[in-house]
Specification:
Elements lengths: L12 H15 L1 H5 L4 H10 L4 H25 L11 H35 L4 H11 L1 H18 L3 H8 L8 H31 L2 H37 L10 E4 L7 E17 L1 H17 L11 E4 L7 E11 L6 H10 E5 L5
Parallel strand pairs: 1-3
Antiparallel strand pairs: 2-4, 2-5, 3-4
Length: about 350
């Protein structure tokens, strides 16, 4: 029996598989040898998978907190020491430091453009090689972070939120909040510089045949193998779940339950109109298991065991990786007892779908 409690309160299949994959990676010596170094893992945690909008939204949140804090400070009239007041020297320093940060960030963007063009020539436009290069060097994320910081710095030269706070009469003369945001700018630039160091180092290694092979090995160990293992376990545990919930399904009589399969002729039980293509993202196995066991027992109590007749079937058509679109009868039944409203409600909460990003 599978301990679905490892998947959280509702027995998330995705969370359960993620734990299984992490434990496998932790004990697999070949994968451990090719794992990313600790600092690189931290850098990837900060940048990987992030877009320009994400960086801008996070910064806007910090900026809004700083501006709101300054407004509250001005509203309640708290006094700060004279040493914290914003002097003309502070204003000059903040203006100059912002211009220096902008110049540095523009230089970083120029290096990115030059390096990407060089690698495209070296790899002879091989899409697979470029995919490995872009992923391992964090090219897209590095570029997004750099453009976002440059955009933020260009706007923040005018300190728009702080200016509005002063216009409405709640601003303060303290330099704390402006220096806080300036420290955020500097920290952000340091992260980008760390990403630049990683980008340049991997770019230089990528033009060498032996080093490129090691980079591909690292990509395989950290990306390809965990992804393939995750997809395989999703399908395996999902298909085997009915026998885990109802061991008696292996007997020669009684109802049948299938996941990822739809009979040719069947009666719809649960339907959904998907206006956009979706795929199965996760299954809450505890809820699903409760429904399947309950339906099985009700069939047994009514004597519908399949003796001398076709065995009752309850089938679910969603499967991992197969898109669904339009009105879809994703839970159907052949014979047996109908599902109750409570069971249908829980089934809708059991299956989680996600939109397909790129429709084929």
């Amino acid at each position: 029996m599978i301990d679905w409690a490892r998947g959280g309160w509702f027995g998330s299949l995705r969370r359960y598989v993620a734990r299984e994959v992490r434990e496998h990676i932790r004990v697999n010596p070949a994968i451990r040898r090719a794992r990313y170094p600790l600092l690189l893992r931290f850098l990837r945690w900060l940048l990987a998978g992030k877009a320009i909008g994400w960086f801008v939204i996070v910064y806007l949140g910090l900026n809004a907190v700083a501006a709101l804090s300054e407004i509250l400070l001005g509203f309640y009239g708290s006094d700060w020491p004279k040493s914290w007041e914003l002097s003309s020297d502070h204003r000059t320093f903040l203006k100059d430091s912002t211009s220096y940060l902008i110049s540095t960030q523009v230089g970083i963007l120029a290096i990115i453009s030059l390096a990407v063009g060089l690698i495209a020539l070296v790899t002879e436009r091989s899409s697979k090689e470029l995919q490995v290069y872009y992923h391992e060097t964090l090219t897209f994320e590095f570029f997004a972070s750099s453009v976002a910081l440059l955009s933020v710095l260009c706007v923040q030269v005018f300190w728009p939120l702080q200016t509005v706070a002063h216009r409405i009469g709640f601003g303060t003369n303290t330099a704390v909040f402006k220096f806080f945001l300036s420290s955020v700018h500097i920290t952000w630039l340091l992260v980008n510089l760390a990403a630049l160091a990683h980008f340049v180092a991997d770019s230089l290694r990528f033009v060498q045949q032996d080093a490129r092979a090691r980079i591909r090995e690292r990509y395989t160990a950290n990306v390809v193998l965990p992804y393939d293992l995750t997809e395989t376990l999703h399908r395996a545990y999902y298909a085997a779940a009915p026998r885990d919930f109802v061991p008696a399904i292996n007997e020669h009589d009684g109802p049948l339950i299938f996941l990822g399969y739809e009979p040719s002729s069947s009666q719809p039980e649960v339907s959904t109109d998907f206006t956009r293509p979706v795929v199965l993202y996760d299954v809450r196995m505890k809820l699903l298991g409760w429904v399947l066991k309950r339906w099985w027992r009700r069939c047994q109590l009514q004597g519908d065991r399949g003796h001398g007749q076709r065995r009752p079937v309850l089938a679910f058509s969603p499967s991992f990786g197969r898109p669904l679109k339009g009105t879809t009868n994703w839970c159907v039944r052949e014979g047996g007892v109908p599902l109750t409203n409570l069971e249908k409600f829980l089934l809708r909460r059991s299956f989680r779908f996600r939109r397909v990003r790129h429709e084929v």
